[in-house]
Every structure is written in structure tokens, then in C-alpha cells.
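FW: tagging you since you asked about this chain on Friday. Here's the raw sequence from the shared folder, copied in full. Didn't touch anything.
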Amino acid sequence: MTRSKFIVLWAFVLSIMSSVCLSSCSDDDEVSLKSISIQEGSNIQMNVGDFKTLHISFEPSDLEAPVCSWVSRDENIVAVNSNGEVKALKAGHATVVASVGDLFAECTITVNRVLVSEIKLDVEEVTIFIGDTLQLSATVLPEDATFKELVWSSSDNSIATVSDDGLIAAIAVGSCEIFVADTKGDAKSKCTLTVVPVMMEEILLDKSTLALEVSERSRLTATIQPANTTNSSIVWKSSDETVATVDADGYVTAVSVGSCTITVSDITESVSASCQVEVSPISVKGIQFVNITDDDPVRLLIGEELSLSYEITPANAANKNVTWYSSNEDAVSVSSEGVITAKALGESVVSIITEDGNYKCSVKVNVVELTDLIDFTASAGGVTINGVIMEGSKFFYTVKNNSKKSIYISHVVITDSWSNQTMTVKFEVDLAANSEGEWTSPVRYGIMCPIHFEIYYESDGVVYVEAVDYEK
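HL: got it, structure written out here
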């Protein structure tokens, strides 16, 4: 490299160095400053929220004041601007550095918290009902205290509890203290709390009067006001237990005819309600005939009698008086004891009506001839060719006596519809009342269908004839 090129390169380097200056001070100041320091000292005390302006001293002191750069090494605790104004943000320690070019100075700033001097409660003494809640409000002084977080507590959690935000819940009757303090323990305050029971004010009954029959049972329902009454125990009483009793659940049982008062009260009997109870005899609820229905009419012969039986419901009804009626007294009469008598051919409706409640049941009564009560059927079985029942087959007879009289069956006359020839089959048997008989006879010669059968029977010296036809 030639000498001239070296001179040019060196000049370029000096030019670059002069343009890159680490200080905001002038070139002359950088060259001439020997040292800098912070006038306020190396250890400074501040409170959270305070402001303070720092200044530098420099040597030589006769130079023009240089421009200085300020930096905080922990800006969460202390902030500093370009003019050296410091703000204390949070309790702790932070280093503030001042620099001019290659020269620097530093100080340690200790930021102290603002202590809580007092906690004021909006209520210092209070009485509330068991089960209620109450919100306490606390004011922390001074307003710029560093730590305003509060801790709540109760001296007896079995009486009352308090939440993290000061909400009291009354648990049981008694007294306790509700405390509040800041988290650093600088100040404390309390509220004296008294928890009292909720007294019963009123009892309401669902009924003011109650009508029962002897042996009936009904429940009275009591509603207590207010619903959150502490002691909701109640006592039931009857003014006359020979008339009606009441149990612990309010069930009233009627014992005998009469009236009484059912009272419910608190255990001190200072609050009560009552219901007037009237007990009447057991009433009739219905009546019906025994073993007889409207669909099964009674059939009687002239002169016959029948005693009608009935049941009243309930069986222990007090008034069982009844009245009997016949819709056709000419055909059927009925006594006050329920004995019906068939007087003439015809129909009637016999009714019984209760005096209590006018409950009614009825039965149809037909006065008939004996033939209406004798059911006769006849048929044939065996070989049949072209409508002819062949010799060797059998005739079948059934007689049902639905009357109260026995009958004497003498014979049956059988008529061939083609030749009108007849044959007679002798029975000569007695058939008891309300009974049934079955007989057979052989077919002696071929007989053409349809076949006409006539049965002859006697009762009380009267001969009756009943006919049926059979067609295969």
C-alpha cells in the first residue's frame, strides 16, 4: 500500500468513529467529562405512587451540563423517563442507571408499600334472622394503601359464616364476631352479629269447617307463616275426643254424632287456628236385591208368594228404613216386609226405596200360567233318509220344571207330518219343582219330518198340553 492510500483510509476510519458517539452529549463534553454521579445518592426511599426527579453531578463541574440517558433495570417496580423523573410503581427494589457516553452512575431505589391504617365497616353491630344473609361492606384507608386485599372470618362458623367478599350467612341462633383484615395484618375491624330465630306469625288451615259421618276420616292441612319459621312444630287438639279425635298429622276421625273443634297451635300456644267439625250418623250409600237382577225377572203362579231379600250399603248405616212399591197392585202386591203375592195374570215392577238418600232398586215380576214355567224340547237321532227318520232310531225328550209345583207327566203323542199317523209314548213320571228330566224312546217305524210332539202333564188336578215341532 502506498503512503497516500494509507492516509486516505485512516481519514475514513476517523470519520466513522466521530459519527458513532455513545453519548448524547457534544463531542467536546465527551472528551472533557471525567465522571458523573447522582445527586440524590445511591440509596433512595420512595412509597408506591410517589414521583421523584433525579439529577446528575459531573466533573469537571464547570462544563456545560451534559445530556444524560436514564434507564430502570426493573420497570415493574420503578419507571424513569428521559428527564430523570422516577415513578414508584410497586413495592420492591430497582436500580436506576444514568449514563453520559461511556460514563454512568446508578442508585438503588427502595419502594415501600403504603400501609393500611384503618378498615371501616358499614355495620358494626347487627341482628339478623336465622337463615338470612347480610352483605357487609368494608372501606380500606388510606385510599392509596398498597395492599387492599381483605380476609374475612367468623369467630363461630356454627352460628354464622362469611364469604370471601363479606356475605354473612346466619346458621344458628347465637352471637359471634365477623372479622375483616388486610392480608398483611396492618389493620383489623369487626362486626358483632346476633342471630335470632324466625318466630311463627300465623297458622292457616285448609278448612274452617268439616262434615264427617261416624267412622269417617279426613285430613286437615296446616300452613305455617312465614315459611322459614325456625321452630315449625305444631300441636293438634280436639275439644271433645268422644266426638272426633285428631292425630299428630292432622287426620281427624269421627267417633260419634255431635260437634267439636279441632285446634292446631305452636308449642307455646301463642299462634293457633281451628276447624269446626260436625259428625253425623252413617248414611245409606246404596241398596240392592240379593240374587235378583233387573235382567232376571221373577215368574210366579197366581197365589204364590216370594220374600225379597235386600242389602243396604254400608251395613252399619244408621237409618235402614225402606218403603215397598208395586207398579201393578192388581197383579202383584208387596207387603212392608217385602213379601210379594201373585194375584192375577200380568206384570208389575216391585221397588224398594230407602228413607235415607232415596236409593232404589227394582225387580220385574210376571204372574204366569204353569205352562210358561214348563220348558219342553224333543228331538230325534239316528238314521235319516230323505227326511224320514228310520226305524231303530231314538226320540229324545227334555222337560224342565221352573215352577214351585211338582208335575205328573203322563205321555207324549208323536204325529207323522206325512201320514198324520200318531204314536203314544207313556211316561207316567213325577217331576219335582225346579227340576229337570230327560227321557228317550225308540222309533218303531219310519216317520217323516217335521214331527209334531205333544206332552201331557197334570198339576193340582189340571191337565196341561204343550207342543213342539222337530225338523231334522
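FW: The longest strand covers residues 103-112.
HL: agreed, and The radius of gyration is 62 Å.
FW: great, closing this out.
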